[in-house]
Write a structure and sequence with these properties.
It is globular and about 70 Å long. 35% of the residues are buried. The protein has 311 residues and is mainly α. The protein has helices spanning 2-14, 27-46, 48-52, 61-86, 92-100, 118-135, 144-172, 176-195, 207-212, 220-238, 263-273, 277-290, 292-305, and strands spanning 248-250, 255-257. Bound molecules: Phenylacetyl coenzyme A. Residues 35-36, 39-40, 43-44, 47, 74, 105, 107-108, 123, 127-128, 131, 134, 195-199, 204-207, 210, 216, 220, 270 line the site of Phenylacetyl coenzyme A.
Length: 311
């Protein structure tokens, strides 16, 4: 009965074991997973746009091939994640509709424009870097299909991060103009990258329950600190600075102190009022509508191949 099922669920969570699609789970657990996994999937797909904008303007064939492959990987991540979400009883079609109607979220970071080619490197370094920081612990999330999707995604994200860092370090060894271009890009992306980890713990309505269920393994502030600590030596090696006068090593804490992101800006961007929200959603909606014939054709083809009488 229900009491047994609940006890079994709680025991699985307590053992840090995995909940699988056929296991009983509380409705609220299913709901929070659909919310997080869907937002994550949408982020991967919407996240193709800022970098995708530079594919036609990449400075060499080599850089173009790398960027094409990177953006394609993000599409793949979106597909693994929509598949993970489908094991919870929602369809990719439903989730896509919720996204294009603006009823589900995606990461704030993708609402900022990519103004220079250096942004391709900065996104790889800082945005994929923040993504790895957030997602490595999610490989141990309590929901099996999500955790397994994360393992492969993290491997690819590490490669993306190296790619971004390599691009920036090449530019840093170039002309003064190139170095200035990198610094300007890092100045624009630093604070939005810190916001990717979500609101401060004290203002994060979902963290406590998600941690209790093992959906999240760390709090937003813990991961943000980890990201700052990881990024500072990398910035030094590159020869760039972060636009934060409060950033300094705190020997007592064994961590870097850093300033407060502009949380009003964060709230505005999440509400739909960031610099590119309208453009990102309009582009996604158009791509979805333009793809209708592909979905119809694929469905018709699948129907024909299905043996007579089979569902
Ligand atoms: N943007 O209570 P919390 C990538 C929302 S990486 C927009 O703290 P939670 C790779 C939050 O949903 C990016 N909304 O929420 C890539 C909630 O609203 P809700 C994707 C945000 O869930 C690189 C409300 O604020 N990664 O795509 C943001 O416990 C390059 C209150 O927040 C993931 O999604 C934000 N930054 O913690 C691709 C990682 N932060 O849902 C292409 C998985 C918070 O109640 C190119 N997700 N909100 O309506 C997570 O780890 C968590 O969901 C957090 C938020 C940490 C994002």
């Amino acid at each position: 009965d229900l009491v047994d099922l609940e006890a079994q669920f709680e025991a699985t969570i307590a053992r840090s074991d995995r909940i699988e699609p056929r296991d009983w789970m509380p409705d609220a657990y299913r709901k929070t997973l659909v919310r997080q996994v869907a937002q994550h999937a949408h982020s991967e797909i919407i996240g193709m746009q800022p970098e995708g904008a530079w594919i036609t303007r990449a400075p060499s064939l080599r850089r173009k091939a790398i960027l094409l492959a990177k953006v394609q990987d993000e599409a793949g991540h979106g597909l693994y994640l929509y598949s993970a979400a489908e094991t919870l009883g929602v369809s990719r079609q439903e989730l896509t509709e919720l996204l294009v109607e603006g009823r589900q979220k995606y990461s704030s970071i993708f609402n900022y424009p990519t103004l220079s080619y250096a942004d391709v490197g900065t996104i790889g370094w800082l945005v994929d870097g923040a993504a790895i920081c957030n997602q490595v612990p999610l490989c141990r999330t309590s929901y099996g299909p999500y955790g397994r999707a994360m393992i492969r995604i993290c491997k690819e994200e590490s490669f993306h991060q190296r790619q971004g860092y390599e691009l920036l370090s090449t530019m840093m060894r170039g002309t003064d103009e190139q170095r200035a271009m990198v610094q300007e890009s890092v100045d624009r992306f630093w604070w939005p990258a810190l916001m990717m980890f979500g609101p401060p713990d004290a203002d994060s309505p979902n963290t406590a329950q998600s941690m209790a269920w093992g959906v999240k393994r760390n709090t937003n502030d813990d991961l943000r600190q980890r990201f700052v600590d990881m990024s500072v030596p990398q910035a030094e090696a590159l020869g760039v600075t972060f636009p934060d006068p409060a950033l300094r090593w705190n020997a007592e804490r064994g961590h870097h102190d850093f300033g407060e992101p502009d949380w009003d800006e964060f709230v505005q961007v999440v509400r739909g009022n960031g610099p590119c929200n309208t453009q990102r959603l309009a582009h996604r909606r158009r791509a979805h509508e333009d793809g209708a014939w592909v979905r119809e054709a694929a469905t018709a083809f699948a129907d024909r191949r299905r043996p007579a009488g089979a569902e």
